[in-house]
Amino acid sequence: MAWAGYIAFKAQVPAIRFFLLGWGFLWFGVAVAVLRAFGFIPTTVLTYYAVQISSGLEMLFLALALIDLINQERQSRLQAQAREIDAKRMLVDTLKNEEQRLDKIVRERTVELESRVASEKQTLNQYIRFGALISHEFRNPLNIIDNQVTLIRRLAKPSKDTLERLEAIQNATQRLATLFNQWIESDRLRHALDQQVHLEEANLAQWIQALLEQRLDHQKGHTIKWQSSSATISCLIDPSLFETAVRNLLDNACKYSPPDSQILVTTSIDAQWALVNVSDQGPGIPNEERERVFDDYYRRTADASKESGIGLGARVRKRIMDLHQGFVRILDQPGPGSLFQLGLPLRPPVDHEH
Asked: The domain spanning residue 226 has which CATH number?
């Protein structure tokens, strides 16, 4: 036991000093009692009660050892808690530093991306403006070519073969003019939300009838029939923009329909909407492609390689109708062809009675 206590003392085991002192006093008391019993030392109060006194001192030091052990355990727990707090504080500091670093990276990346987006928008706007400028520059020569072909046909009395060639030239110039007009209108409508739309009250039935009487030359190969369910359909339109939408529908209907076929245009009232329907006898639009028709530069799969165009017309129509707080949609119709419908908010008729 003494040897074990010595080893523990050398190893600096907590509370071992009080334990050794307690055992030392106990053995000292036992030694005094033995010496008194054999007469080596006289009998006194201290020698007579040596065992009891040493046992009391042993209990005292054992109690001190227990107190010291508890105190050492408490100190160890406090130190462990302090280390844990320090570790958590270091972790929090690390997380904060990492968060600040990531926040800085995000801000830098955001600034970089915003700069790139602004640069791309600027490049796109420059491209659009350049395209619109080129379109404007091309329209004048195309108009000259078209006018000269018309004069030649009227004044020169060309042969049938020459008439066919002139017809091909005129059709080509008109198609180019249509493409350039679509480009220009698309450029205008990209920024139209920031501009004021000039709405005017109009009788849609009469307005459509007057527009159809101004038929374009390249529509003469088709019969355009007009019907209206009501003589008075009051609504608000921007005449220039809405004419672009209707003419675009008519141009497409003629372009995709067989020669000498009929294009049906109807005006009607449905609930709170004034409606314009344009029906052709062309190849139609598959249901799976209808949602994509109004995307920029989208062209119908079946006609992408057969007909001229860059796929802006449908997108232009949709923007125009959005500006009118209306809609454009594709409806089912019996038989071949496509049925496009334009919808405008219906304006209640004004009561002029007094």
From this structure: 3.30.565.10
